[in-house]
Amino acid sequence: MKTLNVHGVEVPLCSNEVSPEIWAALQNGRYEANEARRIARAVRRGDRVLELGAGIGVITSIIASIESVRVWSFEADPRTACLAQRVIDQNCAGNVILSNGILAAGPSAKVTFYRRADFWMSSKFPEQGPYEGKVELMSLDIDEFIETHRINVLVMDIEGAELEILQRARLPGVERVFLELHDHLYGLSGIQEITRAMSRKGLIYDPRGSSGPCVLYSLDDGEREFDAEVAHAV
């Protein structure tokens, strides 16, 4: 087993535990690089964060490194969740609870999850491409979870399932949503629907934490001083 340093996170992993493409991305720093650069703009000291789509726990660990933050993270693929738990155990100080499961809008229901060799392509959608196998899971109600755990930040990278969640869920008490958009699955019309759904919840596109498909929606926090670092990055 080799320990890779990925955006400051120690990742203990064997090359045969992930696909060659993911192994290469982990080694050359390309793995979730955009998310890693932006996540600190979405999460603040003392936040209570719900993360959907933990992957192998790299972004989870970056979030958990922020002072006084607590994280509840979900990963649908049981094999990937095992790798994520290893990374979390290596990097986090007991402030992360990782679950193998799925959250969705509405009452619990059976969900079929399609596992792919490149786990970052695994999703609820069979039409996304060839898959290696299927996992049957019972979803949990995201709004109920948010209320129970007093979540105020939602982070998502769930390969297209964000569209339905953001259209149907209330997201009570959520102040910021950071997600990766997947226009190849729902087109520009889907992105428009997400923006409308966010607007109905009082959440506005926030360029301070957005770059390309990785976008931040925030409650309006009023005027702010000019931030040269953000202006340069955007």
From TrEMBL:
Residues 53-200 form the Methyltransferase FkbM domain. The keyword Methyltransferase applies. Keywords: Methyltransferase, S-adenosyl-L-methionine, Transferase. InterPro entries: FkbM_mtfrase, rRNA_Ade_Mease_Trfase_CS, SAM-dependent_MTases_sf. This is FkbM family methyltransferase. NCBIfam families: fkbM_fam. SUPFAM superfamilies: S-adenosyl-L-methionine-dependent methyltransferases (SSF53335). GO terms for molecular function: rRNA (adenine-N6,N6-)-dimethyltransferase activity. Gene3D superfamilies: Vaccinia Virus protein VP39 (3.40.50.150).
